[in-house]
Amino acid sequence: FSMLGQGGGAFYVPMLLALSVPIYVAATTSQVLIMVVSVSSLLVFARARMVDWKLVLLIEPPTNIGAFLGGYFSPYIPANLAKICFAGVLLVGAYYMYKPPHVAGARPARPTPWWLWHRTGVAEPYTINVLVLVPVMLVAGCVAGLLGVGGGLIKVPAVVVLGGVPMSIAVGSSSLMIGVTALTGFAGHALRGHFDLLLTGVLAAGVLIGSQIGPRVAIKRHPPALKKYFALLLVAISLWLILGAI
Fold first, then answer.
1. Kind and range of the H or E element at 129?
2. pLDDT at 108 over 60
């Protein structure tokens, strides 16, 4: 998951549910594991200059607000409904992973309206539409906080398709954003007492190792087939969740 700027919540939550962990404890544990992956993979992506810090500063505030609200109000959402919503999020992510987004050509550096933010301090210049992405990030954060995911499955397709951000920068920047989003989502869950310290500590050791390997592989090669396999995995998990809810 760290190879594609994801936190792994799409796997952690179904795995924990299969082990009979309550869904909201699973969501909280997932948030912590995502934070571990975020910090670990960020160290690798940042050295490769694949992180756009200003992009993160722009879209993280609305995402964090949504993540906290999603985590805090999660007890009011029925468990089966949460599973179905989670499956829907995974299917959306699978679609964009399987079908590579269109990458727009270079855009002129001439003055643009205030809602179009032109970035030139990165390897591949791009323009982002603030009016589109800010509300999208608010929704993405709410879903992430509610379901125990870092939001990368929503944010990466959003910034690439709607914002025209190069895929490499989106993946690297996502490694930072998923951790911040997970932190705020975890805060909302923790206030509700959805936390198992021992379970989280054991699983964190495994994801720490994996999140050091994944980014290094992603920097060296990024085969299209890998994204398709990833999409098929998300479809399989989503179908399992839907069947479980039914």
1. strand 126-129
2. no
For 156, half-sphere exposure in the C-beta direction (CA atoms, 13 angstrom radius) is 34
How many CA atoms are closer than 13 Å to the CA of 136, on its beta-carbon side?
20
Report whether 33 contacts 7 (CB < 8 A): yes
Tokens 């054991």 sit at which residue? 202
Confidence of residue 149 (pLDDT cuts 50, 70, 90): low
d(C-alpha 26, C-alpha 20), whole Å = 9
By the 8 A CB rule, do 230 and 18 touch?
no
Cβ-based neighbour number of residue 99 at 10 Å: 12
Backbone angles phi, psi at 176, to 5 degrees: -85, -45
Whether 9 and 34 have beta carbons less than 8 Å apart is answered as: yes
Closest CA to 27 of 204, 148, 185, 201: 148
pTM: 0.71
Phi and psi, residue 127, nearest 5°? -125, 135
Range among 53-57, 96-100, 122-126 rated most confident: 53-57
Rounded Cα distance between 220 and 245, Å, is: 40
- Interval 162-185: pLDDT, tens: 777 787 788 888 888 888 878 877
